[in-house]
């Protein structure tokens, strides 16, 4: 069942999730296989970073608070900014496995209903600072409204 924030989703993220464990260091560093996961969220962006540093934000950055609305593994041959109407979405609002604080994700903020047209939106990067917990009150809130996360949205320059 979709979260109450689903109709208001305005942020799409591309999460490059490792799909295979790293190889042994004895064999030398090798890139792990990556699975592309598209995440949609309802984001509230705060003012900031409009020309001066303020509150730890740099120019072109905004603090954000989000609720995840759905996610899907990107099908082969698809691009992450397609409409995605036929993708196998997980609409529980819970974060995809492997998503952690500290991740830096490619982002697009704007009207998701307009995709694949990307005019009227803002490309950038989101760095996740904190994710809601998995127990207690966080578990109750996540069951209704989806997992919450906060971070910083940095506009592509």
Please render the helix and strand layout as text.
Layout lengths: L10 E8 L15 E12 L15 E13 L30 E6 L12 E10 L4 H10 L2 E8 L2
What features would you describe in this structure?
The protein is mainly beta and 157 residues long. The protein has one domain. 6% of the residues lie in helices and 36% in strands. It contains one helix and six strands; from the N terminus they run βββββαβ. Strands 1-2-3-6-5-4 form a six-stranded antiparallel barrel. The mean pLDDT is 85.
Overall pLDDT = 85
Strand content: 35-45%
Low-confidence stretches: none
Helix and strand sequence? EEEEEHE
Q: Compute the number of strand runs.
A: 6
Structure classification: mainly beta
Task: Give the helix proportion (percent range).
Answer: under 10%
How would you sum up the global shape? Answer: globular
What's the Cα radius of gyration?
16 Å
The number of domains is 1
Distance between the termini: 38 Å
Q: Total helix count?
A: 1
Largest sheet: 6 strands, antiparallel, barrel
**Spatial strand sequence of the major β-sheet:** 1-2-3-6-5-4
Quaternary structure state of the chains depicted:
single chain
